[in-house]
Amino acid sequence: METESEPYVRLATLRQVHQAIAELNTARSLADTLQTVADGIVAGLGYELSAVNLVRPDGDLVVAAVAGSASAEALMAGRVGSRVSWERRLSMGDHWGGLRFIPYTEGWVLDEDDVPQWHTAGPAPRFADEWHPMDRLFAPMYTAGPSGGELLGVISVDKPRNGRRPGPWGREALQMYASQAAIAISNARLRANMQRALVRLEREQQALRASEESFRQAFEYAPSGMAIAEMGGDQHGRLHRTNDALCRLLGRSASQMRRYSFSDLVHPDDIGTLLRTSAEGGRAELRLARRDGTYVWVSLRNSVVADAADGPRFLLTHVEDIEERKRHELQLAHRASHDSLTGLPNSAELRARLSSRLCGRPPGSDGHAAAAVGPYGSLEGFAEVESTANAAVSAIGAVAGAAAGTVSAIGPSAAHAFGSDAGPDYAPDFTPDDYGGAPESPYGHAHLVDHHHEHAIAPDEGADDGTKGLAVLFCDLDGFKSINDRFGHHTGDAVLIEVARRLSSGVRDGDTVARLGGDEFVVLADGLGPADAEDLAVRLRNAIIPPIRVDGRAVRVGASFGIGWAGCGMSADEVLRSADQRMYVEKRSRAKAGRRAG
């Protein structure tokens, strides 16, 4: 390549090496950089052949670039040599600084390994430093310099143009070039990785934008209401964003909706339902306020979404209008609990309302009941007090009749016969527990105690002591059967509807008027004394007596009332039975009085 006596040759070669190194930094891609490295060996360092072997991710080395011979490039480019074979080559031969030189006298052992090569046999050297065709010279490239760091690749060179093995200056030039090539290749890899990362980032951003646009369109144009609300903190539930469907449903603009949270819009009676709804994946059915002050039933379902991996979380709320379904459910519930003809509460609803005011513990039996159930109203300790509990229940039976004021009037025989003589429209088939009474203990008939329950107490009809109670007025129409027989069921139905209206008009707002069936009605009126109940019965009877016009015809019916009193310790059936018997007593008394008058 050069001689020590020709400094001008070394200067010209240095310029060529400098130019080759400068070109390393102009390559636009990793492939261009690798080819520029191979070309620089041929153009600037005076070798006829060069190859760049690059370390792959699996550790083996692939021939990534070849320069100086098209036939050698066709033979070697893209072929792979194992890492083991390359490490063997780099560990043998002469170490020329960072270079590895394997003379032909040793290289013959490498002829059969898997490293791609183009060496051919030739005559023995004629002088000491003559290059032999089987000589091998390698310049390893490392990520942190030639003496350390991770192996990046190996530059292979062959056929010096001057036919001599390189001297100290030529070796230093090749080693310096390999160091600069390693930097250039590392930079090219970094640029390639950055470009791939940028491309991947751009694709992810495009996908994110597309996803956001899809979500925006799905959110904005969803047929049902959608909202995004803040999750956690002082502003939990505050609405950040609402779609058009929700704004239309509630009659408010999007800007107005941002002033509220769902707790501001929910019906006061549904606040508890909203609070019980779990924030994560919770759902509830409740009422939301419209701008005009009305409320709409909605199904509200929450999902938790995160703004970023560790960023704030929000509630994505789906709001579905269920007003029609709720209206239908309420209609069905009303039909199940109300009489289809008159619209009044039916027998089941009457018993439910009556039972809600009664408990299984009669007034005056507190000591027995407390001993049975313990201080906390639980079933613990019942085994020890079973006999006491049974005694308490026996007392209930004795007190029930007196509390209703029926024992002296009708006697036990009449009460016993009630089940068969009460009439076809009244067949009690309920037990105290059916109406919310306390469950029986497995150790007896003692009941659970509700310490917040306000006992229903039957007033003493013989004393004007100011006691108020729950009056039960049992009403049976007089003369109704003859109207049905003479004028038909159409007229009879019209009479029942008008009687129901007159009864409802004659009671207070909190009272209950119910139809048991047929021509029997019941009125529940709380907070009355005996005289008050008598006055109410008279007013209602007088309201029923006036003629009722049906299809141009005037018909009349009378009414008989029996007044009973609801008291704790009684069942709903016992209360109704008492009032019914009172009504029959009154009906018979009036019939006798009419016969005497006649």
Automatic annotation (TrEMBL):
Domain named GGDEF: residues: 468-598
Keyword line: Coiled coil
SMART domains associated with the record: GAF, GGDEF, PAC, PAS
PROSITE patterns hit by this protein: GGDEF, PAC, PAS
Protein name according to UniProt: Diguanylate cyclase
Every PAS domain range: 211-293
Organism classification: Bacteria, Bacillati, Actinomycetota, Actinomycetes, Kitasatosporales
InterPro entries attached to this UniProt entry: Biofilm_reg_signaling, GAF, GAF-like_dom_sf, GGDEF_dom, Nucleotide_cyclase, PAC, PAS, PAS-assoc_C
Coiled-coil residue windows: 187-214
Residues annotated as domain PAC: 282-334
Organism of provenance: Streptomyces cinnamoneus
